[in-house]
Task: structure prediction
Amino acid sequence: MKTYKPYQMIKKCSLGKVEDVRNQHTGVTKPVFSTVRDVHYAQVKRSLTQKYLISLGSSLNDTIMIAIQHQDMTDIKLVKMNGVVYDIEDNSIDDSNVYIKYDILTLQENTKVGGSNG
Result:
């Protein structure tokens, strides 16, 4: 799997999960983004072949890809970048025998939890 240089991992995002928070005035619960940890990431560019195959009709049509250093992703279902919450559609785990591993996350914008949409 590809390796990334430290200067490529300059942007920060938050890995998190959904928590239901109750409004103390109305008693209504609302799903909100809860940060588990902050990590640095690099934007991953798709090849022309990948772009073409996705454009033919795929569930990955409106997605972006980022690379993060290998993490325990047990409870993590969401990523927040620049105030926008994304669902993790796919986590491509690096299972090589190198010391520093990178996971590729495929993200799709979430319309139900926190961020700029709710």
